[in-house]
Amino acid sequence: MADVVLKNVHKSFGRTAVIHGVDLHVRDGEFVVFVGPSGCGKSTLLRLIAGLEDITAGDLLIDGQRVNDLAPARRGIAMVFQSYALYPHMNVYDNMAFGLELAKSSKAEIDRKVREAARLLQIEQLLDRKPRQLSGGQRQRVAIGRAIVREPKVFLFDEPLSNLDAALRVQTRIEIAKLHNDMRATMIYVTHDQVEAMTLADRIVVLNGGRIEQVGTPLDLYHRPANLFVAGFIGSPQMNFVPCQVAGLGPGEVLVSLPGGGTLAVPVQPDGVTTGEPVTLGIRPDHVRIRSEGALGGRVELVEELGENHLLHVDAGQGRLTIREPGDARHEVGSTVRFDLTREFCHLFRRSGEALPSRTGAASPAPSSPNLSSSAA
Amino acid sequence: MTSAVAQGNVSVPQQARGRRSSLTRSRIRSAWAFIAPSLIILALIAGWPLARTIWFSFTDANLNNLSDYEFIGFENYLANYDGEWLGLLTDPDWWHSVWNTVWFTLVSVSIETVLGIIVALILNAAFPGRGLMRAIILIPWAIPTIVSAKMWNWMLHDQFGVINDLLLRLGLIAAPMTWTANADTALWAAVMVDVWKHTSFMALLILAALQMLPQDIYEAAKVDGVSPIRVFFRITLPLIKPALLVAVIFRSLDALRVFDLIYVLTSNARDTASMSIYARQQLVDFQEVGLGSAASTLIFLIIAIIVVITLAAGRVRLGEDPR
Asked: B112: distance to nearest CA of chain A, Å?
């Protein structure tokens, strides 16, 4: 078990730079998830840690040792691939044992480790099967088993669930969380699925364009996104963004004029914004409240029923707004609704995308642990 | 499972079965219509000559007059005249040609397989100019055998050949060698030319197999710390084995029928004759159509047996080691 430290890590393929200076400290036993849209560099970053790609510049430390120039096998890592990457001609037992044969472990030792991992993952009855005789979920377990038997300092997962169907994904997700609880190993996990990120991570690293946008606990990112990108990426359905102008400043609040008329006092630190400056107001669909006496209004364009709640897509004159309400929809397409924005849950973003700091104790929970080593984008 | 299917069939109403089988019948009819032309052509160009050859092998036909012959049973193969055994199976020249052919096939196909794997592995690596290299290595294969045999014949010529000249200048040999006339070196020369010509074919088939392999397992092996040599023998080789087997069968079939290369290179010498050369000699030079046909039939049987054995062995291995 070990820390993983990235210091100003860069990666270029030829002339194309894909990772632009990443600083990150993954603590011992921590479960860190890299999320971001396609092409954000999350998989590349994982492959840099694994040693499958060379680091162009910067330092990578595992367990305090600089490993930039070490072969993958000597870094003390194990990797679980998206496509499982099982050896197709070997049975499950040999797939797990193959890597150990090289470590000059004794036959009995290998056997013990393989059977223990198989028991942990409940694949003991599959040891004689070939990968093609297994279902997707079983293959993924074998791939995880192959990682476990290596007893690595760091587990690396590259989108391990994306080839599984929805139900199996939820189940395997729970098992991976359990595995982490049992083993207390350092795990770095890449996914594009924010539900996986939110549920599994101790901390989430949001990547975009080869840079870290924000590092924080799942709820930290949800409640206090550092910028427009994180605000839009975390949370489903997406946060609503309304362009507006600063109308006035108060102590611990910013007065904004909404495009449809009217003003709203948002409880965030002014932090140097000036009256008249254009800003973006962000509010999650859950925090828009339908009220007959609401200050804002719009026409319902689309209703999506989800059972336990429903989504209203409202054309509010100056852009579309998504509203989530519990239960079945009580509005029809074409009808007009009035609503309010719950001001405690509003975020304000400067034109640069950066969020204005929220007032302590407002919409978000207590700040998370102070020794977060996040890197500004 | 089977019983469930059977029950299902029984419960299908009579009417529905009738309708389905009429559809099936029309499908079978059109399938036959599509296959028929190729079946007819095959029968004409392969079936008829083969049958005729086998028939002639049981006659005393002569090239002078092909319409006048008699059925003599197995006498072309083996016959006993006054306590003396005669026929193809007792001819030392025939058995020598069989041995030559089998030796030639074993040696050349083995070398081609090993070299082909090496070349394919090199071409499978990413390097600048790889596309050009792939085209270049195909050149020997694209040259007609008769041309390359003649070409090599000149290069190996004892007086004017470039190879003797080169070896003399380098001081590796003291006097010019008669590479293609000497029985000790002639077959080796034939093997060398065959390897020069066919390695690229082998490499191409193996390269195709290599490119089908998933890349992720190589990354997994890297993380596992498997050495490149071990990766080759434990991962790459087992996975390309089916394709390799097909390539080996293709090449063996070709090599077992070898004619033009040895015929041109060694000037129809008796010592280096292959089975095909022996058969041609009986048929054309000695005009013994019956005996020549018997030899041809035996060649057909030998090749068929070897292929069946290889295929059977291959299928067993495929069954154990499927992808």
From this structure: 25
Which residues form the domain of A318?
237-349
Q: Within 13 A of A97's CA, how many CA atoms are on the CB side?
A: 20
A371 assigned to some structural domain: no
Find which of A47, A87, A110 to mutate to test the B interface (most B CBs within 10 Å of its CB): A87
Structure tokens at A118: 């198989």
Tokens of B7: 């029950």
Note the pLDDT tens digit of each residue in B108-153.
999 999 999 999 999 998 888 888 888 888 888 889 988 988 899 8
Interatomic CA distance for residues B51 and B280, integer angstroms: 18
Q: Per the structure block, which two tokens stand in for B199?
A: 């390695």
Give me the residue from A88, A99, A103 closest to B239, CB to CB.
Answer: A88
Strand, helix or coil at A279? strand
ipTM over 0.85: no
* Residues in contact with A124: Cβ distance below 8 Å, sequence separation at least 6, in sequence order: A115, A118
Domain count for chain A, please give it: 2
- What's the DSSP call for residue B90? G
| CA atoms in the 13 A half-sphere facing the CB of A206 | 24
* Cα A154 from Cα A132, distance rounded (Å): 28
In a domain, A182, yes or no: yes
Give per-residue pLDDT as tens, B265-311: 887 788 888 999 999 988 888 888 888 999 999 999 999 888 888 87
- Is the pTM for the entire model greater than 0.80? no
CATH number of the domain where residue A293 is located: 2.40.50.140
Residues B255 and B108 sit within 8 Å (Cβ to Cβ): yes
